[in-house]
Hints:
- The complex is a heterodimer.
- Chain A is an alpha/beta fold.
- Chain A is built from 24 helices and 28 strands.
- In chain A, the strands form 7 sheets. In chain A, strands 5-4-18-17-16-6-7 form a 7-stranded mixed beta sheet, sandwiched between helices. In chain A, strands 24-26-25-28-23-27 form a 6-stranded mixed beta sheet, with no helix packed on it. A 5-stranded parallel beta sheet of chain A has the order 10-9-8-12-13, sandwiched between helices.
- Residues 1-18, 36-44 and 754-776 of chain A have low confidence and may be disordered.
- By secondary structure, chain B is an alpha+beta fold.
- In chain B, a hairpin with a 2-residue loop joins β11 (192-193) and β12.
- The longest helix of chain B has 7 residues, at 18-24.
- The two termini of chain B are 26 Å apart.
- The structure holds iron/sulfur cluster (2 copies).
- One iron/sulfur cluster binds next to α3 of chain A.
Amino acid sequence: MTATDPAKAASRPVPISIDPAIAPPGTRNFRDAGGIPADKWHADQNGETLVPTHCCFCGVQCGMYLRVDKGGKVFGVEPRNHDINRMRLCPKGINAYQQVNHPDRLTAPLMRRTRDEEFKECSWDEALDFTVSEIRRIQGAHGNDAFGLLGGASLYSEKTYLVGKFGRVALKTRHVDYNGRLCMVSAAGANKLAFGIDRAANPFSDILLTDCLLIAGSNVGECFPVMTQYIWGARDRGASLIVVDPRETAIARTADVHVAIKPGTDSAFFNAVLNVIVGEGLTDEAYLAAHTTGWDEVKKTVQDYPPARSAEICGVPASQIVQVARMFAGADKAMAFHARGVEHHSQGVENCLSIINVCVATGNLGKPGAGYGTITGQGNGQGGREHGQKSDLLPGGRSIMNEEHRRQICQIWGIEESELPLAGTSMMEMVWQMQRSEIRGLIGICNNPFVSLPNYATVKQGYDTLEFHAQFDFFLSETANNAHVVFPVTVWAEDEGVMANTEARVVKHNKAQEPPAGVRTDTWVMCELARRLGVGDKFDFPGSREVFEELRIASAGTVNDYYGITYERLEETGGIMWPCPSTDHPGTPRLFEGGKTFHPDGKVHMQVVEWHAPMDPYTEEYPLSLTTGRTVAHFLSGNQTRRLGALVEQTPRPWVEVHPSHGFRNGDPVRVVTRRGSEVFPALVTEAIRPDTVFIPYHWPVPTSANALTIDALDPRSKIPEYKVCAARIEAAERVDEVPAPPTAPGHEAYPETQVSRTDPLPPTSPQGRGTAERS
Amino acid sequence: MMGRTIFIDPGRCIGCQACVSACRECDSHRGKSMIHLDYTDPGMSVASLPSVCMHCEDPVAPCAEVCPADAILVTADGVVQQADTTRCIGCSNCVNACPFGIPKIDLQAKLQMKCNLCYDRTAYGLAPMCATVCPTGALFYGTLEELQAERPGVQVADSFVFGDVVVQTGVAMVVPADKVQWPVPGGLPVVEVNGVDVR
Ligand code: SF4
Ligand code: SF4
């Protein structure tokens, strides 16, 4: 076991904080359990060890200790005084450790030759040989591109690097993509266009220094709970808070202005805000003149968005637009944060650009307390796309279509340039290709598209058409349940590796426990497959550490420079923010200081944004907007959290949030119908949502799946699906369907505690208690 | 006034239930949470409020006072402990006596359980689990001075009125500044306290 000795951890140098003087109020340095002498706390705990690591879930990447017993098994969690979270954790983080020794864990490969057969446990050799023979058969008959690879942004960066390399070098296919495609690629695209770099501009601690905080399309309280300490901290210091969201979320509840915007109209809103800022002379002309290009065109475009026009489009009072403009532009230092609410649209990139334009026009960039940020959903949403897992990117954020970049990577990988495939398509497009049998074989690693992709019927059809499907997972997800081969792999606490959080802070996760017998790391499986495909020499990686060394070199000199980051440095610090070009470089917490961006001319390239209506038109038949999102107790497709007793108890099932004006009573079965299908949910009647909008949390599979209803329209640039708005209607239904239990593999028992609520269609008990007016 | 204790600020609570999950992890009652999360205006607002044991000081913990088996001990530093399992007879008197609805009875084991301010942690200088993890600081552990140093101007109340009884507690509640001079009404309509009109 490589568990770090807590006594040693305590004697380490003090972690380098972004600014040691800044700590969110209300987050005093409680005594860190890691510092308790072994003879006290540890003696009491039967010789337990505390292994410092991070939460496996969202993009905050809270530090935590895993409690490991004398037998080397993870059995609990202890808060950790890490720079990011200062002991804070959300319920997902507190319960995450229960995954490690969960009875649903897969412990032997599963295999079947056709989907009519039942899964049977088999040996690793059988599973690997069958997979390799299927790869050979499909690629032999239909070409290399007939086989696809889909990765995940919850994987360590080492593994995402390996996914990109495995796809291009071992499978030799252009069809490599990942589920971060469903997360923040719109923000990434916008940031690249405007600034030439794809990451948030400021560290969390800058939030504490701002005077005005604008949060758009982000339910911070539920999706990134630990970030709220920074927001309340800013509030304590007098910052004003603007929240743009169709729902009154926990953060919106206390905001100075809550703009309850109609889904899909964000860019019209922000164009109007900029219109007012220009009209009232609140722009920072000196900054614009010195550091930007494209301002004149942007200024001209926003003339077409007077508050009255946008107010109509967005369904908000024009006076609010004026108020937001004055508050944001009038503040000394202002910051804007956004998340999936503005990014999950067929104009997601443009929505982000319209917010960036507001920040840039007011000179709010590159200063403490002034800037912008996108909040990543998945733990490694940021790091997951930096090193070549995305269809159009090579390691270091290099473009796969750029001759120079291709040459550099081919040199590092030791392959001919002609061997390196070109850019492939995005995750959703790959599903369409599966439907058309253009992609006939697929390996999925750490993703669950059966729950997480929009338009379930299409997704199911695509996957069912596959001749061969293999999936890496540690629980049998709904998607793995469709596969021919399932490889049982490690959970996060059984391997080491790095992740980059929302701030682009690279943090190191440590290994707390040996994997159960029969389980291998994703790294081992990919390397073993590569060996059997005849390219073992390029995949000689005994573990994450060796992959990271190659990753560092492959990123050197790029915008996403990791070269100066080493495991040793990460263990000594609270994480390092890239770019970090040399081992004595402190990392780059704040971008654009002095106004310089990462474009060759060093300027911000402002982009013109025009508002377009969402792709799914409203009609008399479908008059409402359906929007989706998360709940605090569950993570993404729920494959992990729908098995943990406490989290299931907290939020046992989805619901549909409807305004009282529709005449439903709390708990009534409501059928939500869109052009893709219909599903029935219990009503959660609340004033906290717009009358023309309904909301469903998306963590569950059919028959209680939000994504059976959402539209698979994509943003033309980022190819992100338009999850956050589609046309819908609601009607009374007879009864609510049961929430399906997650599938379990043969020979495994479902976690008994999680069974409590599943078969019992309870009235909704939202963690927020929004609709519990008639609680039983 | 109070020493090191929990301060509850409902204005910050986001209803995430991290406190509830964290409470389950406490070694003194592992697997069971002693925190209630209440919704103050359900159906209208997302506002929520965590209730932990208030560790009543005056009158001395009603739960302890009514316990026929003398199972509920109050420590010298004012922590009202959960019932001593060797004494508790599971009679539920404490449940009925508590004005805040805190103690729970494990019906199978016929034993009382309640928040004991994470005595297993605080004794070692660690904060209680709930206040440690609460992402917003809605639950804060420390002294009043420490709280006020970080949240300038914040006001707290540590007395609650129930009918004509005023209960002074060890755990305090953050209140709007203009409310602080009046005890926080708890449950029943309050007209006057000690001859003072508190409407
Ligand atoms: S899910 Fe996010 S906020 Fe919650 S503990 Fe994990 S990293 Fe922190
Ligand atoms: S952890 Fe804090 S914010 Fe979350 S429900 Fe409990 S008191 Fe409220």
